[in-house]
Design brief:
317 residues, 6-stranded mixed beta sheet, binds guanosine-5'-triphosphate, Rossmann fold, G_ERA_dom, rRNA-binding, Small_GTP-bd, cytoplasm, 11 helices, GMP Synthetase, Chain A, domain 3, alpha/beta
């Protein structure tokens, strides 16, 4: 072993420390989470915003700030659930919280501490243990300073926030400061995405999200819970069209049968619907290829990354 010898040390490059981690932005519906994310990540991801809320935490965008890569996970708005589907969504939002390195609770300045906010605070007491949790009071443009001071004080009395940010996601106030703060709090880890992949990441995500949405619509309650859609390949063609390859991963053979449907009819209609929406979204021709694969251990294999929509290759495909 030459490790530690003067020779080895002298050729070791001076690599800057890389940081990478997950941030969950939570709050009641309409708090302004999407608006803030778009400010911090860039306009391209904004389209995902208005998509129907699906049931799992997915990557919403990746921001790079200095040596840090901040991966924002999408958590459906937290509200008090009544229907079963709503309960599933809220559960998903909380699972995003327990996977995140940093959680930002966003509230609306002019609405103050609503019942919904109170419920979130209560839950944060359990789920948020050991996590860095910041408070972002949004829409500060709608209130006067004394109201803000009062709200800041009261919220901090109720919960031990690591930091409080007063922001206006719409006007842009405070978003940069929050991003810098988050960047500093990312764990020292190699980046999760190569820099050049980030450019088309939103499109890949949107395409996967569209297919997942169509699967949800087509399969209703039959939808296997542990199912994930990944856009494996995105190819721009000279004729202006693009070719998109997607994989639907399921846990069991039986699930594969459900997703494929009788003589492949289900996946075919899902593919048609997804392609039509992609064409409308991109405004050009799309060739969409969807494959369904059984990967029994995908949850354990790639752990939370896959769960959150991150696409790590197995290395043997
Ligand atoms: N006045 C004001 N309005 C804002 C601000 N930030 C966001 N909004 C508005 O608040 C509304 C909700 O914003 P979104 O970003 O869609 O909220 P969200 O939390 O992502 O909502 P869901 O997707 O339903 O969870 C939009 O109409 C925004 O334009 C702000 O700083 N000031």
């Amino acid at each position: 072993m030459t490790e530690g010898t003067p020779d080895t040390q002298s050729i070791t490059p001076d690599v800057a420390v890389q940081r990478a981690g997950f941030v969950a932005l939570i709050g009641e519906p309409n708090a302004g989470k999407s608006t803030l994310l778009n400010r911090m990540v860039g306009a391209k991801v904004s389209i995902v915003t208005h998509k129907v809320q699906t049931t799992r935490a997915r990557i919403r965008g990746v921001a790079i700030e200095g040596d840090s890569q901040i991966v924002f996970v999408d958590t459906p708005g937290l509200f008090q659930p009544k229907r079963r589907l709503d309960r599933a969504m809220v559960a998903a939002a909380w699972s995003g919280v327990s996977d995140a390195d940093v959680v930002v609770l966003m509230i609306e300045a002019h609405r103050g501490i609503t019942k919904g906010v109170e419920a979130i605070l209560e839950r944060l007491g359990d789920v948020g243990k050991g996590r860095t949790i910041a408070l972002a009071i949004n829409k500060i443009d709608r209130v006067e300073a004394p109201v803000l001071l009062g709200l800041t004080k009261e919220m901090n009395e109720r919960f031990a926030f690591a930091e409080t940010f007063l922001i206006s996601a719409e006007k842009g106030h405070g978003a940069g400061t929050l991003r810098t703060w988050l960047a500093e709090r990312m764990p020292v880890e190699p980046w999760l995405y190569p820099e050049d992949q980030i450019a088309d990441l939103p499109l890949r995500m949107i395409a996967a999200e569209i297919t997942r949405e169509k699967l949800t619509l087509r399969l209703h309650q039959e939808l296997p819970y542990q199912l994930t859609v990944e856009t494996e390949n995105w190819e721009e063609r000279k004729d202006g069209s693009c070719k998109v390859d997607q994989l639907v991963y399921v846990m069991r053979d039986g699930h594969k049968g459900i997703v494929l449907g009788n003589r492949g009819e289900t996946i075919k209609s899902v593919g048609q619907a997804a392609r039509a929406e992609l064409v409308e979204f991109l405004g050009r021709k799309v060739h969409l290829f969807i494959q369904v694969k059984v990967r029994p251990n995908w949850l354990e294999d790639s752990d939370r990354y896959s769960e959150m929509g991150l696409n790590f290759k197995d290395g043997n495909e």
